[in-house]
Amino acid sequence: MDATSDTPSFVRRIRRSVRLRALGEYVGGALWVLPSLAALLALAAGYGMSQIDVPPGSPLSRLAFQGTADDARALLIAVSSTVVTVIALVLGLTVVALQLSSTQFSPRILRNFLRDRATQIVLSAFLATFVYSAAGLFTVGLEAGSRTEVYPRLAVSGAIVLLFLSLGMVVYFADHLAHSIQIDAINRRVERNTRRAIAHEDVATVQEVDPQAPEWAVPLIGRKSGYIQTVYPKLLLPMVSDTNVTVRLRHRVGHHVVAGTAIAWVWAATPDDPRPNADALEAAVDADIRVGFERTIEQDVGFGIRQQADVACKALSPAVNDPYTAVQAIDHLTVIYCDLAVRPLGANILTGPGGRGRVIVPGHSFADYISFVGGTFGRYGSSDLIVMLALLRLYSTVVELLPPGSPRLAVIDRAAVVALADAERAMERPPSLEQVREAVAVLRSKINSRDTAAVEQA
To answer: C-alpha distances in angstroms, 163 versus 47, 158, 177, 214?
Structure first.
């Protein structure tokens, strides 16, 4: 970022973008927002339709309702009562699906169901139909409190159209719900969301080395408790550049923070420099970091990996005993880890113009990600042959994407050794253990061949 006199304007634009993203994240996970907008649109559409006069012999007369005012009122009453029943049915099915997913797979995937656009659209269609029909009862067959046979016939026809649309939505929702609670659909959704979060990360400022705070660093106290959901270091960069200080956040995105404890550190280049204004920087850090009561996947790649791992661990529990579901979760994790393998990982370090000031946001390294997946399945799935072979396939696939001589090959090699040790500790059947040993030997041979190729190229 260049130093310009337009820094306040730049910060305002960034803050506005951050607020819009936060609003979009909330709206995307709220079941009431889209149905409420649909209800308002239904009221506006009903008012507009009621203003259309359909004289006899006009082209619209064939589309207008042909019954009496009493027939129209009876129709609207029937539509309203039917749709209310359907809404209750849909909400009940949704709750059952949420409960099933929470107990069978993981409670951390419920947010994905709440963000399901199809469910929100179905509820919007039902609520729009009910509001449209119920609002029509105030005007159809009545005028100034007296009975009348004059009513907006075309608007009543609109209620019939919405009724048929709602019936179609019932069939669609039943089909969608049956598919959405399948483990393949759940894993695919988590994989897609995680890969989107990976793709949106800015790798231009990522460095493997995470600078630590020196002894003279001043702690910045957090003002909120919860999980760090998003961090936008560009908001802090103008302030730290003006004062030529370094701000390092204490926690990664996704970690839990407690109000009153240190959330960051700030320090000058040397202990002899003037102490930075901690109060102003605390306010800036508080505005920059969004802390909420739950983790989100906006910038938290680890949360997406955690969701997949939770599904696998739940399947490996004695109560479920479904190792193939764990294998499916590992297969989807393989896609995610292949994306991570070819990207810079570590701390996000932004430096101000002319090298004045830095903002450091700690991040997970490649070894951290490998250690997590290896430790999780080494603990809960090391006694199962197909799970350990799936884990070794993940490592092998990642090795194929790493360039010869990459330091990450050594990380995979160590992980393979740990996986073999876990299997030797937990597996009771010698034939199964022998298959794991063979798979580890093949994997380590592949790693050694790529290291040899790097030496030959050099």
So the answer is: 18, 9, 21, 68
Which candidate, 164, 165, 181, places its Cα nearest to that of 95? 181
Q: Distance between CA atoms of 22 and 292, rounded to whole angstroms?
A: 11
Sheet holding 256-257, edge to edge: 256-257, 226-231, 289-292
**How far apart are the C-alpha atoms of 70 and 6, rounded to whole Å?**
66
Instruction: For 219, list phi and psi in degrees, rounded to 5.
Output: -75, 140
CA distances from 289 to 14, 15, 212, 235, 442 (A): 13, 11, 20, 10, 45
Quote the tokens at residue 387: 């799970």
Q: pLDDT, tens digit, for every residue of 317-349?
A: 888 889 999 999 999 999 999 999 999 999 999
How do residues 392-425 score in pLDDT, each as one tens digit? 999 999 999 999 989 999 999 999 999 999 999 9
- E strands, 356-438, where? 358-361
pTM for this structure?
A: 0.85
3-state class of 305 per DSSP? helix
Q: Which amino acid is at 352?
A: G
Q: Report how far residue 322's alpha carbon sits from residue 192's, in angstroms, rounded to the nearest whole number.
A: 23
Reported as a single tens digit per residue, the pLDDT across 365-383 is 999 999 999 999 999 999 9
Q: Which distant-in-sequence residues (6+ apart) come within 8 Å of 8 by Cβ?
A: none
Question: Buried b vs exposed e over 181-202: b needs ≥16 C-beta within 10 Å?
Answer: bebeebbebbbebbbebbeebe
Q: Which domains does the chain have, with CATH numbers?
A: 21-181 (no CATH), 208-321+350-364 (3.90.1170.30), 366-457 (no CATH)
Q: Quick one: CA torsion of 96, 98, 102, 106, rounded to 10 degrees?
A: 140
Q: In angstroms, how far is CA 168 from the centroid of its own chain?
A: 29
- Sign of the alpha-carbon dihedral angle for 260, 286, 300, 307: positive
CB 297 within 8 A of CB 197: yes
